[in-house]
Amino acid sequence: MASPDDKSLDGDDPPDSPSSNALEPAMTMQSVGYSMHMYPFPSHMLPQQQLPRSKRRQVKNACTNCQKACKKCDDARPCLRCVKYGVSEECIDSQRKERKKGVKRGPYKKRDGKDRAGSSVDQADVTSQDLAVSNSGPPPGSGSPPLVAPFMPIPGYFAQYPPAHLMKPMENGLYPQYLPVSQHMQLSSHGGGPEAEPGGYPPPHQYYPAFVPFGPPPVYPFISRHDGQVPQNYMIFPMHPKVGGLNDLTSEGQGWDEEAEEGSDKAS
DNA sequence: GTTATCGGACCTTCAAACTG
DNA sequence: AGTTTGAAGGTCCGATAACA
Ligand SMILES: [Zn+2]
Ligand SMILES: [Zn+2]
Question: Where does the signal peptide begin and end (predicted)?
Answer without folding.
Answer: none
